[in-house]
Specification:
It comes from Microbispora bryophytorum. With 758 residues, the chain is of the alpha/beta class. The strands form three sheets. A six-stranded mixed beta sheet has the order 8-7-9-10-11-12. β7 (585-590), α22 (597-600) and β8 form a beta-alpha-beta unit. Helix content is 53%, strand content 10%.
Length: 758
């Protein structure tokens, strides 16, 4: 539902009244004190913050690209606005806001909004943290009864003198406000009233009762006190830079908040170009009416979503409530002590230094960008700090792109292993050649190239070393699990794209089909072809060749191959799930060695909780002989792991079903187990013959899957969840010869469609 809909259904109106109207009231209660505080921090008239709140709510809310985002004056822009007010005056700042809005309109029309997502979050969070520090330091002086200085450094230097001076009333009201902000949200019964509103109300009431000598908010005339914009006077280069800075900072903050809002609701996904256009309209109108710059605000958006908003009506109505409140009750705002607003801003500034972001950035090694940006914003300025942060982020990105690791070590008698990981460019050639120089002549070298790029300089250095090493009697076995950069360079092939996905020509093959890469080199000649040879020698990449049997397959050799090739790729994933598993499916299938669940479902570690037995049988509840193993697995998956789907997967040519059709082998345990398949056999016998080409065995294999789904529902806890819609049962059938998965139910036998691209 959008504001522009010509007709709104009765059901949608009920949703608006039940969800969006209450949410809008909650956001309104949060927006008023924050708007007042940001106006004070920006050096603007107090009414300007309320104008921006109204315009941001009504205009940006109605036209924006997110159904839950709430726009208004943002604390992150307060430093820029304060500097503009000091340089050009308030009315000229309004004109700059209008021009910034028009620029955002142009950028929205050019559909460049997604370019904002290319800005490193470390820079954005560092900028906001720096702004928070500057706001906190400046407002701390007001709380202490003094006046803020021109820079953060001066505020720090003047702080001892402010603390030593006696400003009893100001300090007490500030401490009271901060105390309420800290305690209010921790008391569940009080959370209905937002903490900022409660803190200002208590501060105003205390000031009125005690008669303390405090500075009150000046809101004489309400909205009638605001003045329109005038053109700024001065260097037009500086004015153009200010317009660009306001437009970009407000736009980036709005778009990042818009992206974050997608995680807060299940409604339509955000349209970033529409959001940027809406922000442009809102800023142009806010500046024309004498308001602060407008941006999407994280605090209000989060509050809106958590309060239950489902459509953009909540954001629009919150702006209407601000308008009505200011028009009718402006006198109430004049009762708020300015020191209480300063304490609120001090609290907000400290909260803007979000340690949660620091922890997230640490795992990606982006903490230097965060802290350098924050320090530069505090010590130099907002624009300069952002520029420095962006430059550092770009340098670190280039460093990561050019990063390469070379590990050369001796693995046995006259055997060495060299592992090269990363992007092998001319920058990494010195490190590569230094490592290769330490390898003795004439030894066997396993060279693993885990590369996502190799340039010509690196190839020439590596290939020259290989030729020299082989000339002196050495042997080099080259393997490239992630992309054949070296082989392609030898063959004169140009790879597209620059970064290619990992190869999948080894890990899924049975041991008997694998060939050591050195044999492949020998078969392909000195050119170094890396194609998998077909059985007829034709070189088809998709037909593997069966090697001659050479004794029992070595399980430990396979384990060593996992440690060597696969473990480095999956280690980070497994590390995150080492303490807890959260599978979504219980997958019940046959113990047949040809069925590999993770292959036929393209799943990975942590996806499937797997139960395997002969015939993929599920004994009915209370069956004789009893089988607690299967029941325990199902019980644990459903009640502890909270899986939402149970899949039974049968397959063609099942030996257990063949035994049911013929004579069960003289194996006591197997004979006892296959008693649980008698219902499947009876169902098969009672069924009418099918018109398909499948023989009796495969038809029984399919029937068995359907019967096991019924057997699952004989377990009361499974049946209860299925009836409640909290658990789904699904049947699959794998045709081994055709490598084809089919979906089974009582009415249909449907091949799973292939996903085609292009």
């Amino acid at each position: 539902m959008t504001i522009s809909d010509d007709a709104v259904s009765l059901r949608n109106w009920k949703s608006v009244l039940r969800r969006d109207v209450p949410a809008s009231l909650v956001v309104f209660l949060v927006a008023v004190p924050l708007s007042l505080g940001i106006a004070v921090a920006s050096g603007a008239p107090v009414a300007a913050g309320l104008v921006a709140a109204v315009v941001g709510g009504v205009v940006a809310g109605a036209l924006g690209g997110s159904v839950v985002q709430v726009s208004g004056p943002a604390a992150g822009l307060s430093l820029v606005v304060a500097e503009l007010v000091h340089t050009y005056g308030w009315r000229a700042t309004c004109a700059i806001t209008v021009m910034a809005g028009l620029l955002q309109l142009v950028l929205g029309g050019l559909k460049v909004a997604r370019a904002a997502l290319g800005v490193s979050p470390a820079v954005v969070h560092g900028m906001l943290a720096g702004v928070g520090v500057v706001i906190a330091l400046s407002q701390l002086h007001i709380v202490l009864g003094g006046a803020p200085q021109r820079s953060a450094l001066e505020n720090v230097l003047e702080l001892p003198a402010q603390i030593l001076d006696n400003h009893t009333h100001a300090v007490m009201i500030g401490v009271l406000t901060i105390g309420v902000l800290l305690v209010w949200g921790r008391i569940p019964r009080l959370r209905t009233v937002p903490a900022p509103l409660a803190a200002l109300m208590i501060a105003a009431l205390t000031a009125a009762v005690t008669g303390w000598d405090l500075t009150k908010v000046d809101l004489k005339g309400g909205f009638s006190s605001v003045q329109g914009p005038v053109m700024p006077q001065g260097d037009w280069h500086a004015i153009a830079g200010a317009v660009l800075l306001v437009a970009l900072l407000a736009g980036v903050e709005s778009l990042l908040t818009c992206v974050a809002s997608n995680r807060l609701h299940d409604g339509p996904r955000a349209d970033l170009d529409r959001e940027l256009t809406a922000q442009g309209v809102a800023n142009a109108l806010s500046g024309a009416l004498g308001g602060l710059p407008v941006a999407g605000v994280v605090v209000r958006t989060t509050t809106n979503a958590r309060a239950g908003a489902r459509s953009r009506w909540s954001a629009v109505l919150h702006g209407v409530w601000v308008l009505l409140f200011t028009t009718a009750f402006a006198w109430m705002i004049t009762l708020i002590p300015l020191e209480a607003l300063a304490a609120l801003l001090l609290f907000i500034g400290v909260q803007m230094v979000n340690l949660g972001h620091v922890r997230n950035l640490r795992s990606h090694r982006e903490m230097p960008v965060y802290f350098v940006t924050m320090a530069a914003v505090v010590l130099i300025g907002l624009a300069e700090g952002v520029a420095i942060g962006l430059g550092l982020a770009a340098l670190l990105a280039l460093r990561r792109l050019a990063w390469v690791s070379v590990d050369a070590r001796e693995t046995g008698e006259r055997r060495w292993r060299v592992v090269v990981t990363g992007s092998l460019t001319f920058l990494g050639v010195p490190r590569l050649t230094e490592a290769l120089r330490g390898i003795p002549a004439g030894v066997v070298v396993e060279l693993d190239l885990h590369l996502d790029f190799m340039d010509n300089a690196a190839f020439e250095a590596l290939h020259a070393w290989r030729l020299e090493h082989e000339r002196t009697g050495g042997v080099i076995d080259v393997d490239e699990p992630h992309g054949e950069w070296y082989a392609a360079a030898i063959n004169g092939v140009r790879l597209f794209p620059a970064r290619i996905p990992p190869r999948h020509d080894r890990w899924w093959l049975p041991w008997a089909y694998r060939r050591h890469s050195r044999r492949m080199d020998a078969a392909a000649g000195d050119a170094g072809s890396y194609a998998v040879l077909s059985a007829d020698g034709g070189g088809h990449d998709d037909v593997p060749v069966l090697c001659e049997p050479q004794g029992m397959p070595d399980l430990m050799e396979g384990t060593r191959e996992f440690q060597r090739r696969t473990a480095p790729m999956v280690r980070s994933v497994l590390h995150r799930m080492a303490r807890k598993q959260s599978p979504s499916h219980l997958f019940i299938t046959c113990a047949d060695s040809r069925i590999v669940p993770n292959i036929i479902t393209a799943s990975g570690p942590g996806d499937l909780f797997t139960l395997r037995n002969i015939g993929n049988l599920v004994p009915r509840a209370g069956a004789v002989p009893a089988d607690d193993s299967v029941a325990a697995t199902i019980e644990y998956a459903v009640k502890v792991l909270d899986v939402r789907m149970i899949t039974v997967c049968g397959h063609s040519g099942c030996g257990a079903m063949a035994a049911l059709l013929g004579e069960v082998p003289d194996l006591p345990a197997l004979r006892s187990w296959l008693r649980h398949g008698r219902q499947s056999l009876a169902r098969f016998v009672a069924a009418e013959s099918c018109d398909d080409d499948a023989g009796p065995l495969d038809r029984l294999c399919r029937t068995n899957v359907i019967q096991q789904l019924d057997n699952l529902r004989t377990h009361p806890f499974v049946d209860t969840l299925v009836r409640a819609g909290e658990l789904e049962l699904m049947g699959l059938y794998f045709d081994i010869g055709a490598a084809r998965v089919h979906l089974l139910d009582r009415e249909r036998f449907t091949p799973v469609p292939e996903l085609r691209t292009g």
